[in-house]
Amino acid sequence: MQVVVPFAAESPKTRLEPVLSPDERSTLARAMLDDVLEAILETGHEPTVVSTAPLDAAASVLAADSVSVEIDDRSLTAAVDARLPAPGDDPVAVVMADLALATPTALKALFTSVADVAIAPGRGGGTNALVVSHPEFSVDYHGGSYLDHCAIAREVDATLETVDSFRLATDVDEPTDLVEILIHGEGRAPARLRSFGFELDTDAGRVAVSRR
Amino acid sequence: MQVVVPFAAESPKTRLEPVLSPDERSTLARAMLDDVLEAILETGHEPTVVSTAPLDAAASVLAADSVSVEIDDRSLTAAVDARLPAPGDDPVAVVMADLALATPTALKALFTSVADVAIAPGRGGGTNALVVSHPEFSVDYHGGSYLDHCAIAREVDATLETVDSFRLATDVDEPTDLVEILIHGEGRAPARLRSFGFELDTDAGRVAVSRR
Fold first, then answer.
1. From CA A152, how far away is CA A128, in angstroms rounded?
2. Considering CB atoms only, which of A125, A203, A204 is closest to B207?
3. Which among A103, A147, A167 has the least Cβ separation from residue B183?
4. In the predicted model, is pLDDT for residue B204 greater than 60?
5. How far apart are CA B14 and CA B22, in angstroms?
6. Where are the domains of chain B?
């Protein structure tokens, strides 16, 4: 199985602007990418990062022999679609680079699906990760992609599984998402956030983050 | 195994005030309770609703012989703590009444845990459902209860499992949570929301709800 990890190299994570500087957003995005790559490697697969621009591999999981990087500046939909399986090809998994809570166990539940299309939905109707083995399936990441992908699978008569995982449902886009990294994260991303001065604030009903 | 479903009967779901009237909030809360009870019944267990006030059982799952209702106007923590297992007792599960996406499959993954304490965390560090078989464990639902419950389990030397489920992680507290009901819900709650005029708005990046 191919495992593709799309990565937006330029000005990543703009919705975190209220709480993080551009440099910090970039550092956090790379830490999350490293955490995701490491979780994929632990499942026994060799990920391919598809980046919109070249990345400095120094001091990162990108430097590992088992990780490859391809540059593709097309839209997410076009770059992923170009890598989906043709008839006879192995299945292709697509895992978003901001799934900071991804673990090998959670990914394995997705990777071992026997459905033609298996989707781990994100909060708000996104598609955080999927595995495609049906040659006629295509992606469309615009708007509410989870429901769109379910519809596309039905159109091409592909069997469909929705994988129920909080870890895979949690992509990091907005300031409130940082809470989940500090509570459940285990890798570089929570360490980076703590080095930026973030800590949990448990006075509120739902836990919040505060910054020293 | 006992399955306890705490329910706040008076002015439920106040954080939905910006988008729902008091009557609508109450109707939605009862619809979610019914959906949760039905999912529990389908796992083969007979739930006990612990309500802060008497509930009208007409036209609801509460009228089923296999569902009991107890009135307890204490705080959530006190009402649950009083029902946790004493030495020699069967395990006790506690499932929040607003887990509108709960399915029998997701609940079974929790109910069949062999750990002394199994927790399905909610978004924002809450405790959405748990199963307790250790007689010294106690609950504290104030603030970030997931981390507190993990700490309490460690203090009493209980083995701990965290159950990774998006469906169980999704409690319905805030307007953006309604999106998840419309995308993934299968029972009364999505039907009620649609009857109130809500529909998915897929123009945004994350799917939103709009109201006719």
1. 16
2. A125
3. A147
4. no
5. 8
6. 2-175
Q: Is A99 helix (H, G, I), strand (E, B) or coil?
A: coil
| Rounded Cα–Cα distance for residues A52 and A6 (Å) | 8
Query: B200 vs A125: CB contact, 8 Å cut-off?
Result: yes
The pairing of strands A198-201 and A208-211 is antiparallel
**Which of A128, A206, A209 would you mutate first to test chain B, the one with the most B CBs within 10 A?**
A206
Tens-of-pLDDT digits for all 212 residues of chain A? Answer: 999 999 999 888 999 999 999 999 999 999 999 999 999 999 999 999 999 999 999 999 999 999 999 999 999 999 999 999 999 999 999 999 999 999 999 999 999 999 999 999 999 999 999 999 999 999 999 888 999 999 999 999 999 999 999 999 999 999 999 999 999 999 999 999 999 999 998 765 556 777 77
SS3 for B5?
strand
Nearest to B7 by CA among B41, B42, B31, B39: B31
Q: Kindly identify which residue of chain A lies nearest to residue B146, measuring between CA atoms.
A: A183
Residues of B in contact with A183 (CB under 8 A): 121, 125, 144, 146-147
Instruction: Select from 3.40.250.10, 3.90.226.10, 3.90.550.10, 3.30.70.980 the CATH code of A2-171.
Output: 3.90.550.10
> Cβ contact (<8 Å) for A147 and B105?
no
**CATH class belonging to B2-175:** alpha beta
Count chain A–chain B contacts defined by CB atoms under 8 A.
97
Residues of chain B with C-beta less than 8 angstroms from the C-beta of A200: 125, 144, 147
User: In 3-state terms, what secondary structure has residue A82?
Assistant: coil
Assembly ipTM? 0.94
